[in-house]
């Protein structure tokens, strides 16, 4: 008897311990945990996928209890009844919103409580009504949305086919009329000033050539400043008198402004006559013995009766003291038939060649 007694005591102790553990677990999950608990009934109008007994209950995102019971409503095949046990100090009200939330990567469902302002009746176990669709998961919501889209597409299949057919007809019409559309858009772009700028065409003035051996050299150092001119002549455009718009000259440009171009080609003409004694620009020499001062009177196309290139230059030779040694007005005209840039430039080259030779001969003689 003495040998068997310890085994009876040990067995009784183990059995008591197991009963205590099971009792604690039952109390923790059903009675309410470490503090006083309160029981509420929750009704879901629809499925509650994955919700299990023991699932958490959150109030405003904080865990306050567990689900203690789940069951189907005998009077409604769509409704699910749940019983939750929450901490007694949880501010659950009759108008507290109830939903089903899915947490974590695995989407574990929990009952979520939120808000509420009304005061519950004392002594009564309130029943909380979950919002419609509270148990709907994201997958179910996506499926329902796809069903609705499919329903809309099915109901409007014929109008959609008609719309696609109209687009096809429209695109075929565009393809057939692409050249016309391109020309229309190009016209609109030109009218509004859009698109890339048109390429300008530059023309130069030819210096006088074909001089014989100089009979008389230029005495002293001669300088030619930039000719003076009215503002209208400070341009690279072709000028017309009377003023008129010629589309062929819309992209025309002289190689430089008219005064600078005349200065450069006149110096080049002097070099062609006698490069050893040719004049320089006034900016390239300090104190020249003489200066050939030019004023541009005309450099234009006259279009009165017949087109002609008209050049008129007023020239004066002054010494280093500012005394005028000689002065003269030089004019040349050259007629041409077609009012086009190449013909006009050729006429100006001929007229300038003659006027440059006249100026050179006069200057050599005056000095």
The CATH architecture classification of the largest domain is 3-Layer(aba) Sandwich
Mean pLDDT: 82
What Rg, in angstroms, do the CA atoms define? Answer: 53 Å
Distance between the termini: 160 Å
Number of strands: 15
What are the secondary-structure elements, in order, as H or E?
HEEEEEEEHHHEEEEHEEEEH
Structural class: alpha/beta
Biggest sheet architecture:
7 strands, mixed
The CATH topology of the largest domain is Rossmann fold
Describe this structure in words.
By secondary structure, the protein is an alpha/beta fold. The chain has 2 domains: 101 residues; 166 residues, ABC-type transport auxiliary lipoprotein component (Rossmann fold, 3-Layer(aba) Sandwich). Helices cover 34% and strands 27% of the residues. The strands form 3 sheets. It has a 7-stranded mixed sheet. Strands 9, 10, 12, 13, 14 and 15 form a 6-stranded mixed sheet that branches. Strand 3 and strand 4 form a beta hairpin. Helix 5 packs across helix 6. The mean pLDDT is 82.
Keywords:
6 helices, 367 residues, alpha/beta, elongated, single chain, seven-stranded mixed sheet, six-stranded mixed sheet
At a glance:
The protein contains 6 helices and 15 strands. By secondary structure, the protein is of the alpha/beta class. It has a 7-stranded mixed beta sheet. Strands 9, 10, 12, 13, 14 and 15 form a 6-stranded mixed beta sheet that branches.
């Amino acid at each position: 008897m003495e040998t068997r007694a310890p085994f009876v005591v040990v067995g009784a102790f183990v059995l008591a311990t197991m009963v205590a553990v099971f009792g604690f677990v039952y109390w923790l999950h059903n009675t309410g945990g470490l503090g006083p608990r309160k029981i509420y009934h929750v009704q879901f109008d629809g499925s509650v996928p994955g919700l299990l007994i023991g699932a958490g209950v959150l109030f405003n995102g904080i865990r306050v209890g567990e689900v203690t019971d789940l069951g189907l409503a005998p009077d409604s095949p769509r409704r699910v009844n749940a019983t939750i046990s929450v901490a007694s100090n949880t501010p659950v009200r009759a108008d507290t919103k109830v939903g089903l939330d899915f947490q974590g990567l695995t989407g574990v469902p929990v009952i979520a409580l939120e808000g509420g302002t009304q005061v519950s009746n004392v002594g009564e176990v309130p029943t909380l009504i979950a919002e419609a669709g509270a148990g709907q998961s994201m997958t179910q919501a996506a499926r329902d949305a796809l069903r609705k889209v499919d329903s809309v597409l099915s109901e409007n299949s014929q109008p959609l086919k008609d719309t696609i057919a109209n687009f096809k007809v429209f695109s075929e019409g565009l393809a057939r009329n692409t050249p016309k559309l391109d020309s229309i858009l190009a016209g609109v772009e030109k009218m509004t000033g859009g698109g890339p700028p048109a390429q300008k065409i530059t023309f130069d003035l030819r210096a006088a050539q074909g001089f014989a051996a100089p009979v008389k050299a230029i005495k002293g150092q001669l300088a030619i400043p930039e000719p003076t001119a009215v503002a209208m002549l400070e341009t690279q455009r072709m000028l017309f008198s009377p003023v008129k718009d010629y589309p062929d000259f819309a992209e025309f440009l002289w190689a430089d402004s008219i005064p600078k171009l005349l200065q450069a080609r006149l110096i080049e003409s002097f070099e062609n006559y006698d490069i050893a004694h040719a004049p320089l620009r006034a900016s390239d020499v300090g104190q020249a013995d003489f200066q050939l001062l030019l004023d541009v009177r005309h450099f234009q196309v006259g279009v009165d009766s017949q087109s002609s290139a008209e050049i008129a230059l007023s020239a004066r030779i002054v010494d280093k003291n500012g005394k005028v040694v000689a002065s003269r007005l030089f004019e040349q005209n050259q007629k041409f038939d077609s009012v086009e840039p190449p013909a006009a430039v050729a006429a100006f080259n001929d007229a300038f060649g003659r006027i440059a030779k006249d100026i050179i001969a006069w200057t050599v003689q005056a000095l």
